Amino acid sequence: MSELPILTSYIDGHFINSDTHFDNINPVNGQTIAHISEATPKMIEDAVISARAAQDSTWGKMTVNERCALLHKVADRMAEREEEFIAAEIADTGKSLFQVKTIDIPRGTANFRFFADLAKFNSGETFITDTPTEDKALNYSVNKPLGVVGVISPWNLPLLLATWKIAPAMACGNSVILKPSEETSSTAFLLAQVMDEVGIPKGAFNLILGRGSAVGDALTSHQGIDAITFTGASSTGRQIMRSVADRVKPISFELGGKNSAIVFADADLNKAIKGVTRSSFTNCGQVCLCSEKVYVHRSLFDAFVQGLKYEAEQIKIGYPKDKDVFIGPLVSKVHQQKVLSYYQLAKDEGATFITGGGIPKFNDERDMGCFIEPTIITGLSDDARVNQEEIFGPICHVSPFDDEDEVIERVNNTDYGLAASVWSENLSRAHRVSPS
To answer: How far is CA 339 from the centre of its chain?
Structure first.
């Protein structure tokens, strides 16, 4: 019998195991660190029933001040257990201690405080209008909970992006059913423990664990869910849209990105190189805002590429808690193979590899993990697949450009429009280009 911990779902105020388990893998070394209990269809049904009951009897009936006081208690307890959250996030993702300690966990905790305070001051609208009879009419809006919100969170920023959805939904009086990524369920499980410890009413927060094909689909298609919020791949977003279309259910999506950085001739070269290094390789490129396409004015192109190569090769890759480690592994073997397939595609499409393009060698247990080299390529057209499809790994393509109008047109040659960055010491140029 395995002595590894079992992560279970949390439904109607109870932690519930099932007969089906799968392994939770540490991407640093490929070892199993826990077992995840996959929710059954009945458990999903029970979670929806519990969430609806909380809307009718407890959570949905509380005043905003009562709800927000409890959410502050959630944040307080998360802060008390911060080291546990840090350890769980690192074990699931392999991220550096610095990133998890300074961004993921404290910002996840802060989300409960921020949205609790925001909800208390969201009083609706009041205004007076004229009527056809020349009388005055008083118009005002009343804020009420929507109902049961299904939250599907991704694996790249597990706690941060989950709480970004959970906190505002709950602050506004909605019950929540959270389905985290099967790759990164540990901090969601800890959050359920915190909800239980501080006395969040039964059903106001439910946790459903399992794989997307088995659990996520059942959650998004359930008739008792009033809204869905999802962060992840565009292909999954399309699938969710189809599943909710019959009921015209409200949805909130943050999907893929294929983001550009523009470095103008008047940019501070050193600042731009260091900035693009961060924006391309942070979290091993597993951020939807990361720069995968970099456009550099021709007058700076050679110097920029050499500078970026130097910075990329200085990046320390390794154990998350080792000193000065900047990036860890990709989240899984499946994702590692996906990113490697794009490295191969870049070769097939004729790219020039400036640095990287493979898997680092450690000669220890890390060789069983999911590490990959930060990679810089040049020489491809804007229409190449590598420049059109989201890779979600530590790779960027660098292209030269000659004038402002040209680069704006090239940056907008994409199906994605999530983010871009502009490097220039000319403030007028920055303001002119940014909205374009």
So the answer is: 18
CB 72 within 8 A of CB 113: yes
CB atoms within 10 A of CB 426: 14
Local mean pLDDT, 10-residue blocks, the chain (436 residues): 87 97 98 97 97 95 95 98 98 97 97 95 81 83 91 97 97 97 98 98 98 88 94 89 86 92 98 98 96 98 98 98 97 98 98 98 98 98 97 98 97 89 97 94
Token representation of residue 188: 């969601």
Other beta carbons within 10 angstroms of residue 84's beta carbon come to 16
- The pLDDT assigned to 426 comes to 97
CA-CA distances (angstroms) from residue 45 to 49, 90, 144, 416? 6, 32, 24, 36
**Is 288 annotated in the active site?**
yes
Please say whether the beta carbons of 140 and 124 come within 8 A: yes
For every residue of 63-90, DSSP letters joined together read -HHHHHHHHHHHHHHHHHTHHHHHHHHH
In the set 284, 288, 290, 396, the catalytic residue is 288
Active-site residue identified among 45, 82, 84, 254: 254
**Cα 171 to Cα 175, 325, 331, distances in angstroms:** 10, 37, 31
Give the burial class of 124: count Cβ atoms within 10 A of its Cβ; 0-12 exposed, 13-18 middle, 19 or more buried.
exposed
Active site includes 183?
no
Cross-sheet strand order for the sheet of 14-16? 14-16, 9-11, 205-207, 175-179, 148-152, 227-231, 251-254
Q: Is the pTM of this model over 0.85?
A: yes
Paired tokens of 257: 């990105």
Q: How far is Cα of residue 149 from the mean position of the Cα atoms in its chain?
A: 18
Residue 402 CB partners (closer than 8 Å, separation 6+): 297, 298
